[in-house]
Amino acid sequence: MDCKRIVVKVGTSTLTHDTGKTNIRQMKKLVSVLADIVNSGVEVALVSSGSIGVGAGKLGIEDRPSDTASKQALSTVGQCELMFMYDKMFNEYSHTIGQILVTKRDLENDESKENLINSFEKLFEYGAVPIVNENDAIAIDEIVFGDNDALSAIIARFIGADKLIILTDIDGLYDKDPSDKDAELIPEVNVITESLYEIAGGRGSKFGTGGMVTKLQAAEIAMEAGIEMVVTTGEKPSNIYKVLEGKPVGTKFIKK
Question: Radius of gyration (Cα) for the chain, nearest Å?
Answer without folding.
Answer: 17
